[in-house]
Amino acid sequence: MSKFGRIPSERRHGNEVFHNGGRQLGFDLLSFWQWSASDVVSNVIRGVLAEYLIARAIGAADGIRDQWAAYDLLDPRGISIEVKSAAYIQSWHQDRPSIISFNCPKTLGWDPDTNQQSITRQRQAKVYVFALLAHQDQMTLDPLDVSQWEFYVVPTATLDGRERSQHSITLKSLRDLHGEPVVYADLRRTIGEAAAVHDAMVAGEVRPS
To answer: How far lies 98's CA from each of 91, 132, 152, 158, 171, in Å?
Structure first.
């Protein structure tokens, strides 16, 4: 039985055409992206959008998103990042804004190159960024406006040291840990600081807060 290695991904441009054995069909990859990912309010696409915003902030958006990686982003400085998103306003009918909570469980890491899973549950990234689309007016909601987002940057060691739930964190608990949210322009700096705190906590140089 032959083995199939991992297929390397390439960054597309959008003008690649669909065809039938070489005969062009009159539509391109951009039209597929418009069809499949235009609803940036939906929770699935919003999560990917949050990753993209943070990737842009840290200078890691030149490649492509690796949906099979153990963590969401790798900062050019070598910092692994997990991104979690939430929003008050959803694309479906609501009687009231959503209650904000972020899932952040420990997981079994998986290596897509070997198709092997680790045996120890842990958080795979060094830093967590919790991205909240905080705007609550449906008529003016715009996920492309970074001023409508709140960003909370937390060292993973801080999450590991929590005495309460290890599976999720409420917005109140997150604010107790983090304080005021980080503005978009400060994300890169704050992620670097959080990574340094994580390393110090792991090394025993800093006690959990």
So the answer is: 11, 11, 18, 26, 12
Domain that holds residue 79: 39-202
What's this model's pTM, rounded to 2 decimal places? 0.90
* pLDDT 10s digits, 34-57: 999 999 999 999 999 999 999 999
Reduced to 3 states (helix: H, G, I; strand: E, B; else coil), residue 173 is helix
Span 154-173, pLDDT tens digits: 999 999 988 877 889 999 99
H or E stretch including 84?
Answer: strand 80-87
How many Cβ atoms from other residues are within 10 Å of residue 167's Cβ? 9
Residue 6 forms part of a structural domain: no
Contact 90, 41 (CB under 8 A): yes
Note whether residue 186 is domain-resident. Answer: yes
